[in-house]
Amino acid sequence: MSKFPKGFLKGAATAAHQVEGNNINSDYWAMEHMKYSSFTEPSLDAVDHYHRYEEDIKMMAEAGLNAYRFSVEWARIEPEQGKFDDREIEHYRKVLECCQKYGIEPVVTLHHFTSPKWLIEKGGWEQEETVELFARYCRYVVEQLGSFMHYVCTINEANMGLQIAAISARYQAQMMAKMKNTGAGKAVEATAKETAKDAEGAVQVGLNMQKMMENMNKQREENIEVFKTPEPQVFVSARTQKGDMLIMKAHQAAKKAIKEVNPQLQVGITLSLHDIQAKKGGEEKAALEWEEEFLHYTPFIRDDDFFGLQNYTRSVYDSDGICAAPAEAELTQMDYEIYPQALERCIRRVYEELQIPVIVTENGIAVEDDRKRVDFIASATDGVAQCIADGIPVKGYFYWSLLDNFEWQKGYSMTFGLAAVDRDTQKRNPKPSLAYLGCL
């Protein structure tokens, strides 16, 4: 017997740039190929989902999943400003038709971190014009593809820029403090690596903090060549408060455009949330963190049709700020504490403030041992089921990710997937966790 009610969306998630390959008109493709790149490796063919989408959708359906969250790529659809590519829209139409063929409900994300390179050259995600440009793109996609969809996420992890700004500031402050007590040479290098590792484990995206800081000055010169500005404002740049509000404006403008085309579409946004906990003395700092990570967005999303919740771990605060994971805690490849209980706690806390349906749009674990993935999914989904039993309208759970794929600046080293991929042959190798999730 399923632990979820009839109609519950049980699926896996991907993002276009991380799985499709050869997204050559995007800002990320440009950054990956820079001489002083912060990326450990370029995405290249990724895992060739662009050509193998039917194989992957069929694999999900055969395992027992009934939903698939994926993104359409703005840089493919509008490779030049104002010029929409009919061939690329047709590609995504075929993906949606394939979902229909296999009984898979699509949940489509319109922006998942990557943007057209031309947008960044115009000022990117700190430029007011981006609101109008994003809404126009969303309108076009829905005009072309809206009849194949029921659920649309406008923007993935809209709060990521503020999280990265906070992490960058904390990294630099920690480095300054540690350097006062550290000698030169190898000791300094070891300190930098240790501090970077701590910082990366506190943000839910693949970053190379040390490399970013080391290359900062050299990158400024190269950025002028590539993006016509020393500080390109890509979606995951450290964001200002003005830029943070611009993201909310973009979401609201996109939702308005989508509803004008197809009022029946269910529209929401996703945020990256930690289960924020406080030790004695850390209550005020924890409350401020929850305000920045979630609460200040609620006035802009309260009227959405659903909320996309993305959670991987917890953050604990004491009087000095964020705490390192407990010494006995097991960490993932991303240096997150393995803490599946965080998801239930986040759902409950979100619903206290924002009483609209919740879809868990991402929740997962990067580990080599798939038995740990199965245990993680079991515990996390038990929490989801308990929330539903208590009357919270959780409409779906999407594991991140369907495939081992390109984890941004960390490249292909992080194994989140329900299926492994041999990148020499692109052969998919389903893991036991895929079948386990399908049977829930």
TrEMBL record:
UniProt entry keywords in alphabetical sequence: Glycosidase, Hydrolase
Protein's name in the database: Beta-glucosidase
Which biological process, per GO, is one annotated for this protein? carbohydrate catabolic process
Name the protein family. Answer: Belongs to the glycosyl hydrolase 1 family.
Q: What Pfam family does this protein match (any one)?
A: Glyco_hydro_1
Stored InterPro entries:
GH, Glyco_hydro_1
Does Hydrolase show up as a keyword for this record?
yes
User: What molecular function does GO assign, one term?
Assistant: beta-glucosidase activity
**What PANTHER family does the record point to?**
GLYCOSYL HYDROLASE, LP05116P
Any one Gene Ontology cellular component term annotated for this protein: cytosol
SUPFAM superfamilies attached to this UniProt entry: (Trans)glycosidases (SSF51445)
